[in-house]
Amino acid sequence: MAVKLSKINLNDYKPLRDVIFNTLRQAIIMGELKPGERLMEIQLAEKMGVSRTPVREAIRKLELEGLVVMIPRKGAHVAELSIKDIMDVLEVRSSLDGLASALAAKRITKDELKELKNIVNQFAQYIEKNNVQGLIKKDVEFHEMIYRASRNEKLIQISTNLKEQIHRFRVVYLKDYSSPSELMKEHSNIYQAIEKQDSELAEELASIHIKHQEQAMIASLRTED
Are 48 and 104 members of one domain? Predict the structure, then answer.
């Protein structure tokens, strides 16, 4: 598959190595660079209009983040999404989202509740338009709003540390998910539990929501195998 990376904006205020790193990381997370795809330094450098050195540095940094793996005699490749990776990350996220939702049910403000409702409605609109990028954006906003409403800075910090890995899984999930309306229903149910200040139900529904994502992604990977 041809890489769709475009030339780097050399007028960006950030150091070039950081811009290249962030560009490649985003391409991996969004699925533009596919799991298992070989990362050719020369090709990537030409696509972005830069030299090979900062591209090589970015690839090494991506390897440290676990997004790239070095295969002997074959070079750098985008890390595969394994079933074990999905289970490990989403087991943690299930607990975190459950706790965040339980706390949000107790601590959310009226303005935040209104914003959360708007996000749920906007998600529904993107389903009608079959807009995957819009769905991804609103899914991120939905969960981030719940974390903010939890008023627990340590919880937010922990979730932020998992953000990139979770987002990569989210892209796969929303692209392959056969029934976005089910996802919409789950969001609505979580919202209603928070609105009713039912912390136990909010926690349960949030955990189930993540469990469904895990099951869908594992099923998708097994189908590909």
Answer: no
Tell me if 47 sits within 8 A of 3, measured CB to CB.
yes
Tell me the C-alpha distance between 174 and 157, whole Å: 24
Please report the pLDDT score of residue 62 as a whole number: 93
Global pTM value: 0.79
Domain count across the chain:
2
| Structural tokens at position 54 | 């900062």
Residue finishing a domain among 33, 60, 78: 78
Cα distance between residue 131 and residue 152, in whole Å: 32
86 close to 170: Cβ distance less than 8 angstroms: no
Span 60-118, pLDDT tens digits: 999 988 889 999 999 999 998 888 988 998 999 999 999 999 999 999 999 999 999 99
pLDDT value, residue 21: 93
CA pair distance 225, 219, nearest whole angstrom: 10
